[in-house]
Amino acid sequence: MLFLNSTSQDVVSFWGAYSHGLILREFLADLAQADGATVKVEMVLAPFPLTDRVNQLLQVLSGLFVIFGIGLAYVLISMSMMSNIVREKELNLKNQMRISGVSLPAYWVGLYISDIIFGAITAATTLILLAIFDIDCPDAWVLILLNTFANPAFIYFFSSFFTVANLARQAILFLYLVVGLVLPLVLAFLQFGSETTADVARASKWFFLPCPAFATAFGILQILLRQLLAFFLSRRGEVDATQLAAGLEPFDPLIAGYMLYFLIGCIPVYWLLLAAVEGRVHRAFCRVDAGGAGGTRASAFGPGAVDQDPDIIEEERRVEALAPDNLPVRAAGVKKRFGSVHAVKSISFGLEFGECFALLGVSGAGKTTLFKCLTGEVYPSAG
Predict the structure, then answer these.
(1) What are the boundaries of each domain within the chain?
(2) For residues 374 and 325, is the Cβ–Cβ distance under 8 A?
């Protein structure tokens, strides 16, 4: 008794080969019995080779596993970058380096070079894995290389919205898991559904392409699925028979062309945005100035004007008389107001090289606020 799966595409050919083998076996057995000879018949059934469609599907599945693992690695790297930057801000290490003479361009360029080297190791590992598993992703190395330069710039700008390292790390983890890993997979496979889901996928991708993680992952998936995508596009009439036969290029606009353009544009755009933030373009929005006369901090000696020490008046006149370039450290009429409260009210002093200087005052007098104004951690209202 022979049981066959009648829904299998190989059932007809298998049944033919099997029945022919039985007929041949019976014929040879009768022939051998008539001649008195011994005949040994061995039948070998070999499966049909896989079709091109099945091979493509297997390639896609193996590529998805590799890309998913690579995506997780980039998530961890991005978390490390974000955590280090915000931690330096949280501990005032960045301001201390600035006080020590490190300029902002030197700080960011040094950080950028180190992150590129760190990212290049991951990029090289990614390319090695794609080669080892023989993943059909031609020109994917271009997207991976661009991501090495675009991803740090995006993280630098994104870090300007955070002051707590733990919160920044959780935010980048959520962003990269959802936008950089889950959404590319979802939108890539929505393209193979109905026309409605395909239109939703096409419209949705534009909202997330400014994120380099999404542009890179979605672009690699598009290259990996390009043959299946071309087949579905041909059924919708968006690709003609000639294009289908020749195959779509990896950076065709229908495949990964726009991801390439966005990754190239992300590098200068995010650096310009970071320069705008660091250049105090938003200073007007960061100042808290009530305007007018406002209020003053309550004096321990009661209301009324406070007599200034003659030494303070003399120092103010000295600072006003000297050119700004003559003093390594110069504060002239520095004021900081929080609403109607004066935290720092018209402080002036100048320091020479090698001079020992200290601020004396009761708790709440404004000493820390003044030094934060000097280091750029907060913006003075005037001065």
Answers:
(1) 1-48, 52-279, 283-383
(2) no
